[in-house]
User: Which sequence fits this backbone?
């Protein structure tokens, strides 16, 4: 007679340790990335490119802090509206209130959890909650929402570039960075249009991929989700407009940090260099871009003849963390179902 544990007798011993080993590798890799970020901050401090003592002004200049918190909330508000619009072509409904909940909780996890994409994963988890049959569409929409945000960041310095032609002509670094931004933005736009207007090829590619993926219908459903945006130019333009306004609020919040730390550096040139620094801060080289973003901001501000870039980004991180506590309150209250068919 077979014992109750018989099904486990055929399991390979290595399978029992695979999951814990992968988790330990992720933890180790996250700690390494976190150490790199901290090391960069220490380097900036020792090189006198950053002064942590300046950050104490945040707790004495409350009017500026409150104004910055309002601007960062506006950033989250516009991102929430963008996500609501992008769900509509999928036949899915997300209210603005629930979208705000998702983005505030996502902001909390992105700020306080040192992971590769803690905020995005939290948003995916709660958006897909109780939507077992539509998870592929939800994941695709949230990924596309992130892509629209990145595209707008790349686009913003290109829109401001005509205002700073003399500066750009005199600084080779800015010319290279603008060329890279333009190339990446064009590549993203071309890839999206190809996916949108070459559906037969996308379907063939999806069917080919389905042979190698566990969910055989998943690639086709993702391709169909992308195709749902065909002809939805009004929604796409609204989403892009919301992204641009959202990024402008971040520039304004960073300007408030400069007003607090280095008032002499207040300049319209920040409109050109801050979006470039945001791109570097978005790279998953360290948790949340810690250290990498500060290094990029310091270098870009220096190239533009400004000071206080690294401290300004640290101010923004502190303000973002303060607003993230609202996301913590929502998380502790309990997240209800957000997305409905």
Assistant:
């Amino acid at each position: 007679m077979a014992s109750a544990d018989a099904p486990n007798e055929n399991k390979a011993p290595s399978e029992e340790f695979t999951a814990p080993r992968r988790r330990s590798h992720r933890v180790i890799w996250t700690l390494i990335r976190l150490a790199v970020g901290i090391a960069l901050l220490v380097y900036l401090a020792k090189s006198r490119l950053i002064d942590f003592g300046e950050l104490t002004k945040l707790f004495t200049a409350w009017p500026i802090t409150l104004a910055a918190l309002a601007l960062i909330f506006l950033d989250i508000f516009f991102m929430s509206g963008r996500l609501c619009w992008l769900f509509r072509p999928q036949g899915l409904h997300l209210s603005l209130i629930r979208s705000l909940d998702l983005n505030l909780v996502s902001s909390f996890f992105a700020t306080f959890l040192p992971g590769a994409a803690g905020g995005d994963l939290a948003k995916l988890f709660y958006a897909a909650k109780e939507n077992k049959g539509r998870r592929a569409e939800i994941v695709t929409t949230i990924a596309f929402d992130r892509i629209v945000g990145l595209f707008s960041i790349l686009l913003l310095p290109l829109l401001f570039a005509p205002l700073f032609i003399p500066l750009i002509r005199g600084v080779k670094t800015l010319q290279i960075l603008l060329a890279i931004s333009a190339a990446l933005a064009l590549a993203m736009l071309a890839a999206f249009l190809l996916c949108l207007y070459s559906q037969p090829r996308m379907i063939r590619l999806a069917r080919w991929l389905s042979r190698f993926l566990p969910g055989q219908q998943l690639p086709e459903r993702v391709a169909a989700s992308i195709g749902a945006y065909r002809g939805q130019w009004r929604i796409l333009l609204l989403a892009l407009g919301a992204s641009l306004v959202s990024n402008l609020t971040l520039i304004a919040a960073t300007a408030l940090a400069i007003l607090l730390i280095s008032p002499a550096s207040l300049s319209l040139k920040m409109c050109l260099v801050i979006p470039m620094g945001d791109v570097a801060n978005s790279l998953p080289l360290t948790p949340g871009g810690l250290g990498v973003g500060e290094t990029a901001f310091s270098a870009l501000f220096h190239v533009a003849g400004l000071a206080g870039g690294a401290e300004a980004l640290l101010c923004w991180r502190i303000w973002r963390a303060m607003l993230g506590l609202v996301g913590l309150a929502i998380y502790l209250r309990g997240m209800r179902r957000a997305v409905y068919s």
Residues 1-17 have pLDDT under 50 and may be disordered. The chain has one domain: 52-340. The chain has 14 helices and two strands. Residues 164 and 269 are 7 Å apart (CA to CA).
